[in-house]
Input
Amino acid sequence: MINDCNHFTLKIDYNLKGVEQLKKATFYHAGCPVCVDAEKMMLDHLDTSKVDLEIVHFGEESARISEAENAGVESVPALVLDGQVYHINYGASMEEVKSG
Output
């Protein structure tokens, strides 16, 4: 039998101030040489202990083009970090991506 005095529940609130959470980042690209070079740079330089990075290649995941456009991506390669769009170099417009 568990003595009520010795029984407790530990609840951890991960939303407390001072507790660092990973930032969500999505890197969108179309597979062109400019995009592939930018992807390599992202993988080499982003600190994955601070950033949860997802790579989206439109040649493999074309259904996600509208997601990128809704996030504000106008051309690729582009990085969306915590809702802010960063266009990196210029590989292709989203219209070019949609037309294949």
Remarks:
- The chain has three helices and four strands.
- Residues 78 and 87 are 4 Å apart (CA to CA).
- Residues 1-14 have pLDDT under 50 and may be disordered.
